[in-house]
Write a structure and sequence with these properties.
Helix content is 81%, strand content 0%. With 225 residues, the protein is mainly α. The protein has helices at residues 3-67, 79-93, 98-114, 116-122, 128-142, 145-177, 179-190, 197-214. Helix 5 packs antiparallel against helix 6 (145-177). It is elongated.
Amino acid sequence: MNLSMLNNDWIKSTVSLLVGWFLNAASPYITEQRERRKAISSALSDLLEIRHRFVSIESGFNALINLVPLPPDLHPGLQPQIEALLRTKIASLMPDSQELSKRYNDSVSLVASSDPLLGFHLRSKDTAQPMFATLNSIVVQTQDMHAAAFLKLLNPIFLKEAEKGLSAMILELARRRGWWTCRKVRKLLASSSDISQGQRDVIDLVKKEIQKHVEQPPVQSPPSV
């Protein structure tokens, strides 16, 4: 037998054995990376939707105030209450967020199974908007002028920090997903979105609430006997 042929067969067998061993060893890692990428993609999509919902409520409120400004002679103590009422109404007219919250928590659990630290940072990122809505609902129900005034002062800080935190987490997920995804997400977050038709429909529905509470006659005390 030719020695060169023997060497070639030996080399081929050795290379095939090494390639097979490498593929078997790398298969779990490749599968894990694929599942991790899938979980990150799902969490990124859900978190973008959460941020969009959160920002849409405030942009809808600002558009409503610009289109139908409150009367200039409105009592200063009544304005914060009306603003809290409008935010509550806009939030209530939007689609239910329970399904989105459940889907997001499932995605976070998948991420946490391969990256516990990232999963920890992703937890409770969907609670900003419900907590904000709860604060406004409490003000509306109690009709406490001092609480309404305090919430009005708190709103800009709360909204800015909540949106900042959501955007930072979204960019972190996009970076882990890949440079092309990160580029597209940065462009999406930087773009100024116009008022959608859905927001315009909500604005039309809420306009009546302004007139109802602004034009409501003051309660008169009964005449003395």
